[in-house]
Amino acid sequence: MRRRKPKQGENIYLIKAILSDWDGHVMGMPYRVLAIPEDFTLYNLAEAIVDSFNFYFDHAFGFYDNIKRWTKSVEGYELFADMGEESKFKGVKRTKVNRAFDKIKKKMLFLFDYGDNWLFIVELKGIESPKEDAKYPFVVESVGDTPPQYGEVDEEDEF
User: Fold this and answer.
1) Are 140 and 34 in contact (CB under 8 A)?
2) Residue closest to 54 by CA, chosen among 103, 17, 24, 26
3) What's phi and psi for 137, nearest 5 deg?
4) Which of 43, 54, 64, 158 shows a CA-CA span of 20 to 30 A to 94?
5) H helices within the chain, ranges in order?
6) What is the pLDDT of residues 81-95, one digit of tens each?
7) Which domain holds residue 48?
8) What's the CATH code of the domain at 77?
9) Residues 135, 5: contact at Cβ < 8 Å?
């Protein structure tokens, strides 16, 4: 993941990503708080979230305003739109974090990997000035162990 110093006058968004289940439950689930420049795209945010959970950034994804039923979302952003596939939503590669997360406490569902359906509740927790000499994005807080992305590997499956 590429990191950079913030641009002049750019704010830093503190975004909490909590691993969730199908019903939107987050109690006891691992989470990460990330410091992200407001000018980063949702693609950059997705990459930072996936990286912070030690997953491979190797699947399609989207951000949706309906946390429990993403298919019923009114607001959404999908990688599919950037790939030229049919989508009712905007793409993630040109949508800035400060546009999608336009107010404190705004939450969206981040769905990563439409096959395994990794679900994260993503919330804008705060906005702050950049730290001197810091390169972004970075993890501000990490709580809980990450489950394996692809399940346990059986030694017999390796051959």
Assistant:
1) yes
2) 17
3) -85, 165
4) 54
5) 42-52, 79-82, 97-100
6) 888 888 899 999 999
7) 12-144
8) 3.10.290.30
9) yes
